[in-house]
Write a structure and sequence with these properties.
Layout (H helix, E strand, L loop, with lengths): L2 H5 L8 H14 L4 H15 L5 H13 L4 H40 L5 H30 L3 H16 L3 H18 L17 H21 L4 H14 L8 H9 L7 H11 L9 H8 L6 H23 L3 H5 L2 H30 L3 H15 L5 H18 L1
Helix pairs in contact: 2-5, 3-5, 4-5, 5-13, 5-14, 6-12, 6-16, 6-17, 6-18, 7-8, 7-16, 8-16, 9-10, 9-14, 10-11, 10-14, 12-13, 13-14, 17-18
Amino acid sequence: MSEQNTEHFPPRQGNAGEVFRAFLKLGLTSFGGPIAHLGYYRDELVLRRRWLSEAAYADLVALCQFLPGPGSSQVGFSLGLMRAGWWGALAAFVAFTLPSALILLVFATTAAQLGGPVGIGALNGLKIVAVAIIAQAVWGMARALCPDPARASIAVGAVAVLAMLPGAFGMVAAIAFGATLGLALGRGVSTPVGGQVMVPVSRRVALVALVTFCALLIALPLLAGQSQSFAVIDAFYRAGALVFGGGHVVLPLLEAETVARGWISAEDFLAGYGAAQAIPGPLFTFSAYLGAVLGPEPNGLMGAALALTAIFLPGLLLLVAVLPFWDHFRSMASAQSLMQGANAAVVGVLGAALYNPVFTSAIGDMRDFALALGCFVLLITWKAPAWAVVIVAATGGAGLALLS
């Protein structure tokens, strides 16, 4: 963004109520994950409502794809900010996030009541479908982010790092490993400054957001030992701060912060993740389910609220911090090189999660594997939507339970 654009803002053209209504519609109908969400945004807000130009939208998407955090939610937050200021940003975030969060909260409170072979089998099907969905994500991301031998090797190296350093620390080390190698390869290409993204964020506000992001990242681990509430906030904040690639990449981070700590079983974790595929809205609302079913308190509604707020907050703080400086930053070839390596490492991190805990926890015998393989073929070959494949898997899991 140019210096002129950072301090002389365009006039607001809408209000928070208009933004809320538009994003509530999107929150109730946007199936298919973050890439699909960007398509829904474009159709509804760029083509139909004409809130901004194609060029401005493309520039905004490039920024949010570059940052860690939930990409589609960051784009939505920015669109609300551009349309109606800070109240518009809040309206966009709440309207797009709340429907899926409430659905998962209801699932968290009712899943334990499912009994008998049909209910247990359906929950097992939700765990099995996670194998297919993560495998599809690894396949698609590998093709897009590891198109050459060097970046494919970085992905394999990231898996090796995780084999030696499991857990959240290993994931940070793997991404740092990839970023360092990407910088060394130096294959980034600078992009021309476009000046398309114009939002009411001054450099002073951006600096406050950056300081807040860093302060929380440092302070929360120190406070985590004081109470379980701080421990939950720290776990989900760190997961949100380290997610490069968004969407499915949050899975291994959340697993390391919840399952590895004994806060939730691997089976319940995967059942919730499978359910999250069948609903519209951002995948990060999976955190609401996790917060609700945590073993130690806070859980229930309070745990869901803490987890949901903590996981989204770092990505939104980073977005606000970068907005006034985006044009200059994206013009640096070194920044592009660094992100190429980090994104390749993310593929390795997600591939490692596909093996453990997803495959090892969900696949118990050859019948489970056959159902997972069938779901994978539906996704890859038949291009079936994820929510439909989730229904197939739950039905298949119930059928397998009845047969046995």
